Amino acid sequence: MKFPRANLPYPLVAVLVALLLTLNCASPEAIGKLDGAVKPARIRAHLKILSDDIMEGRAPGSRGGELAAKYIASQFEEAGLLPAVGDSSYFQNVELIGAKHTPSLTLNGAGRTWRLNPGTEFVGVTKIEQPLVSINNRQLVFMGYGVDASEFSWNDYANTDVTGKVLLMLVNEPKSENDIFFGGKALTYYGRWTYKYEEAARKGADGVILIHTTPLAGYGWNVVQNSRSREQFFVRSPAGARQLAFRGWITRGKAEEVLNAAGLNLDELISQANSASFNPIELPIRVSASVSNKFRTIESPNVIGKLLGTDPVLKKECILYTSHYDHLGKNDSHSGDGIFNGAFDNASGTSALIEIARAFSEIQFKPKRTILFAAVTAEESGLLGSQFYVQSPVFPLAKTAANINIDAVNVWGKTRNIIPLGADRSTMMEVINRVAMEMNMEISPDPMPEQGLFFRSDQFSLVKAGVPAVYLVGGLKFVGKPQDWGQKLMDDYIKNRYHGVKDEYDPSWSLEGTAQVAQFALKTGLYLANKPTMPEWHDGDPFKKIREKSIAEMAALKD
Ligand SMILES: [Zn+2]
């Protein structure tokens, strides 16, 4: 899609501007004052220091992480933002629970007993904060994909009481010949493994064992094994939230072996699960599982500043910008300096966030709604800083009109396109289209819809709480470069630098593109802040019902 640019003759524009100014009803967007508001040189200065070795990879709870947080807070203050935490501080302390787990899993049935090998045959973790969490002799139920999605008329849980049971499930979502289920090719949240655990806990189950298959998961068993054998971090759930005792994965091979012994066939079960008439199957298998745990608590802040809205009514609503500042820290046993500098991921976004904040406080006509800027922590540990924020928001979520998130922002120069992930799910898209037109940029669709990128950065914490959001991702059509230039750069980054010690600042980076994305985010936020009404999810979107509930609860509170 390409948008035409308004082409008014210059003198006419000048007259219009003068007229608007005399009438004192001009807004910065009308007179184009915002163009060039975000300065690449300033972004570079932040990016260099945030990705410097002195920040030690900005791990939550580390000295370097704390240093980064303090740097960001001082920049927020200098940019003119007010402290947003209790109106007195820029720091929202996030308690992160670190856990090392040693699991066991025994399956019993069909005259046999399987004691599975941790790591190579299964992994298991828990969020229940006890030294030993165990369940004994529980019924194993094959749940298909474990999805309850009323808007897609799909409920694997229909007519089944799963209380206290252990659920064996597939990852991803039901498949059909023509991708007719759910979001078609695009992965919905119902396909994410995190959803499977959450839904099973809500339904009263005590354990979930996900069957790993490389095509359904999108990655090999080694990824599951490596990620679960490290220390796991989580934030404490709100009091009263049900937790699974056992959150497990099993290899396809082992699952097949057990099912075969019970006279069942995994491929047949999968094909049954791909039908809306699927019913859960009680397997002739009992499960005993335990997880022994070592916990510790670390603290790391979200850094939050605000700019008060000017409209007496609308200032009680806000636009929330987020970008994570944490990265993976350092590993002394690693070859080289062992520091995961996280320059692209996400010193780039943090630096852009600071400059969006500065641009906002410098514009002449201040936004009507309040603007919040949150540099969040522990994204790399599973979106934990933003999850904590949602559990303890500094501004009511029902009054949070929209979230704009940036993470790993283009550092290679200006592009002709931008990818506004998730914006098309809500009326926010109208504003995105307007900004794209004004900036003479194309909107490009999600290049990898099957990957569910929208669920993988901090905006998703807000989305799960019903807040409409956009994750602004830079496009790869670079101005003045060959067509495949951007894709090659991105492939190289993913192969050689992503989450590695080589994600370092490079003086040859052109931060014009970073400033361009920041400018896009600035305009989007400003227009959203000045619109008479908050954006709304489109009908049928799974997150619409959460938003409506949140707004109704807020209204009930006032009555
Ligand atoms: Zn990131």
Map the helices and strands.
Blueprint: H1 10-23, H2 40-50, H3 63-78, E1 82-83, E2 91-109, E3 112-115, E4 122-125, E5 132-142, E6 148-149, E7 154-155, E8 166-170, H4 193-202, E9 207-212, H5 214-217, H6 221-229, E10 232-234, E11 246-251, H7 252-261, H8 266-273, E12 281-307, E13 318-324, H9 343-362, E14 370-376, H10 384-391, E15 400-405, E16 417-421, H11 428-438, E17 442-443, H12 459-464, E18 469-474, H13 485-496, H14 512-530, H15 544-558
Parallel strand pairs: 5-8, 8-9, 9-11, 13-14, 13-15, 15-18, 16-17
Antiparallel strand pairs: 1-12, 2-3, 2-10, 2-12, 4-11, 5-12, 6-7, 12-14, 16-18
Residues 324, 345-346, 379, 407-408 line the site of zinc ion.
Describe the structure.
- It is built from 15 helices and 18 strands.
- The chain is of the alpha/beta class and 559 residues long.
- The protein folds into two domains: 38-95 and 299-422 and 455-558, Zn peptidases (Aminopeptidase), CATH 3.40.630.10; 97-295, Glucose Oxidase, domain 1 (3-Layer(bba) Sandwich), CATH 3.50.30.
- Strand 2 and strand 3 form a beta hairpin.
- The radius of gyration is 25 Å and the shape is globular.
- Residues 324, 345-346, 379, 407-408 line the site of zinc ion (ZN).
CATH C-level category of the largest domain: Alpha Beta
The end-to-end span amounts to 46 Å
The number of domains is 2
Q: Bound compounds, please? A: zinc ion
Briefly, what is this?
With 559 residues, this protein is an alpha/beta fold.
List keywords for this structure.
two-stranded antiparallel sheet; alpha/beta; 18 strands; 559 residues; Aminopeptidase; 16-stranded mixed beta sheet; Glucose Oxidase, domain 1; globular; disordered N terminus; binds zinc ion
